[in-house]
Amino acid sequence: MSRSYPIWNKVQACIYKSFTGWGTKNTGEVEIFVGSSAKNSHSFVEHCVTRREKEWKGQEVIVFSFSVDGKVVKRTVFSKDKRGNAKEKLKVFSKINSIKSLELK
Length: 105
Known about the structure:
The chain contains no helices and 7 strands. The protein is an all-beta fold.
């Protein structure tokens, strides 16, 4: 983690001995494929994290949004410091708790 990025992805998988990760500045899009191999796989889900500078309640803020298959499910609003970085968490908007788990029946 030698570089500083506003969006950091910490990845844990059975093929890694420890966590690994990667960062991005404004948009991180991931498409996950499933199947039996790289040649026989199908798109399963897309998720995206974005960082945007916006105005909210009369002040300049940083907004991070997380979407699944193009639908925003969570947003967090931060105040902005003098260098334009996210500073203090101001508000979290989330639909996560209202989503019911899918069960196979």
